[in-house]
Amino acid sequence: MLSRLTRPQKLAGLAVPAAALLATAAFAPLPFSVAQPGMTADVLGENKGTQVITISGAPVRETSGQLRMTTIEATSPDTRVGLPDVIDSWFSTDRAVMPRDAVYPSGGDVEEIERYNEKQMEESQDEATRAALDYLDRADENIDVTLELADVGGPSAGLLFSLGIVDKLNGDGSGGDLTGGRVVAGTGTIDAAGTVGPVGGVPLKTQAARRDGATVFLVPKAECADARTELPEGLRLIPVTTLKGAVRALTDLEKGTGKVPSC
Predict the structure, then answer these.
(1) Cα distances (angstroms) measured from residue 69 to each of 66, 139, 189
(2) How far apart are alpha carbons 262 and 219 in whole angstroms?
(3) Which of 15, 160, 174, 199 fits 69 for a cystine, CB–CB 3.0-4.6 Å?
(4) Is 28 within 8 Å of 82 (Cβ atoms)?
(5) What is the pLDDT of residues 226-255, one digit of tens each?
(6) Are 165 and 52 in contact (CB under 8 A)?
(7) 142-170, pLDDT tens digit by residue?
(8) What residue stretch is flagged as signal peptide (predicted)?
(9) DSSP 128-166
(10) If you write DSSP's letter for every residue of 43-110 in order, what string do you get?
(11) Residue 259: CB partners within 8 Å, gap ≥ 6?
(12) Helix, strand or coil for residue 2?
């Protein structure tokens, strides 16, 4: 004999599996990473006691101001991120939930991912050096550039590396500094042709930049909208698409000439 449930009984019966699903979701690992503003480093100076940019084979300028590359800190690839972590981060301005695949390459263990990020950093440094020397028309000279940045992986410091090399070798081209004595921060990949690419995590990087004294932030133009979200007070955004455009914008800002682009 089959019993027939009334509507309240049906709802009560459905509530048990629904609650079970919610409980499971609350504790099940999700394919996300939780990120927050990370360290920044002045590529014109030292990081952890080591000069970031070392140049031999050509005279190097004394520089003022700072060019700070920016980072985010994310939960490790093997960290379990659950629903409470995600919900908590949604209500925080200094944390963000990002798809794990957007932070780490998929399919590898922690050691493989670390090796991948280190390789990306090495390739980024090579591209940044080539882009800077080509921009200065000095690629055929016997100039040796060494870039050292401990405990940082990935390609997103490429633009700042290139700008640091340009500033040390040439400044603004007329005896001044690219920074104009300011603390300038930024992010962006760069290829050997000097094209700047997007990186992700920009709202967190702007917070790291302002925390460490920056008043100007160079952002890949494609990420202007992201950069404007949670933008710290007192931080000016300058969109860039190429190394040449970034140098021109900083020079115009320093000299007070030309129209400096904005997001």
Answers:
(1) 10, 24, 11
(2) 10
(3) 160
(4) yes
(5) 999 989 999 999 999 999 999 999 999 998
(6) no
(7) 999 999 988 788 888 999 999 999 999 99
(8) 1-28
(9) HHHHHHHHTT-TTS--EEEE--TT--SSTTHHHHHHHHH
(10) TTSEETTEESEEEESS------SEEEEEEEEE--TT----HHHHHHHHT-TT-EEEEHHHHS-TT--H
(11) 252
(12) coil
Give me the domains of the chain, ranges plus CATH numbers: 29-72+81-255 (3.30.230)
Tokens 């933008």 belong to: 231
Provide the 3-class DSSP secondary structure of residue 251. helix
- Structural tokens at position 150: 């401990």
Q: What are phi and psi of 242, to 5 degrees?
A: -140, 160
- The answer to whether 58 and 7 have CB atoms below 8 angstroms apart is no
Interatomic CA distance for residues 46 and 148, integer angstroms: 9
Instruction: Tell me: pLDDT of 212 over 70.
Output: yes
CB 160 within 8 A of CB 205: no
The Cα–Cα gap between 109 and 114 comes to: 9
